[in-house]
């Protein structure tokens, strides 16, 4: 092989390595002139000859990962541009109910996916899921788009179907009344993918007019999202299915092949995707015991492409009989060093700052009080759910003022209380006393869950007695 060929091979290998080091989904950046677009040959839907489709995987704030697609036919000139969401489907669906009372509420920005069902009960309006593409809009924008859709072909309809046209005109007047805020109303977003969001104009303070509830999807909703379990795919006896080892990634272990003690001493690895850039990486998982508490599963992921590091903790046991609420007074350095296990169902609150963080915002993690505070601060500064607008000076100043107060808490200039509320009872805060009794700066309250909390945990539909019978 000549030296020229060797140099070409070396250059090609370096180019491949350079591509592999880049995140799969990259942020849109005006300085990035070398955006990598994938070109594939595809059929033109107009003349059915071959054209070229270009695919670009990128990230847009609030819409997360998307795929930009551009097709052009060199024969007939037909062009088609599409945007599809590539964001991860959340573990649960989400239902957001906003009580719209003022014009400020009309200007709230809304992110909704293709799978979002929009409802306004006061006017009996319902926009079913998958009838409109996902978009970033406002509450008023949703009403405007509905009015424009109803006005289409209205003149023709008045001639051919006068009664239907009159009913539509009356409905449009009701929608116009909502735009003019002649009456308050409720906007409901129900998204089975869990990727919808309504802006909180008072952030980081709690939203008084908006209620968010997560729910477990039904089998039909999972199938609509393309999620199937093993029984759905096999469509037969699980025991017989497991015997077909060549058709399934997960295979049953023989009795005694993997003991409980082996599991405690082993660090397991499995392939996954980076939560930031969606590149392939590995997650390490280990089952461990927290003294005086219970078993937990600790998972850590490190992405070699973008450098993202995440850690997550899941309870190794079931849901406790009662919920638990911890109240920690933060006044000294010792208070910041307390060990904290926050489960996925635990919410956080700092009453003195009027700050509240939902259970799914930070996920499950094993850290310290200081680590929890730093994670909350990072979520507020860099999280995608905060709308940063360079022209909105009021919002910027309010956020900066809040962050200054938060820094005073971390530097112990201000004494506050941190409240951890876990309906599942799977969270834990370390006591500074040797006998594990709560010290004078730690309050622990166990309480009975209400119906809504049991519903969110899926306990209302669980049959614990005589479950063998249908």
UniProtKB/TrEMBL annotation:
Source organism superkingdom: Eukaryota
Keyword terms of this UniProt record: Metal-binding, Repeat, Zinc, Zinc-finger
GO cellular component: nucleus
Any GO BP: system development
Residues of the Zinc finger ZPR1-type domain: 42-200, 272-431
Keyword Cell division: no
A GO molecular-function annotation: zinc ion binding
Presence of keyword Zinc: yes
InterPro entries (alphabetical): Znf_ZPR1, ZPR1, ZPR1_A/B_dom, ZPR1_jr_dom, ZPR1_Znf1/2
Pfam families named among the record's database cross-references: jr-ZPR1, Zn_ribbon_ZPR1
Family: Belongs to the ZPR1 family.
Protein name: Zinc finger protein ZPR1
Native organism: Glossina fuscipes
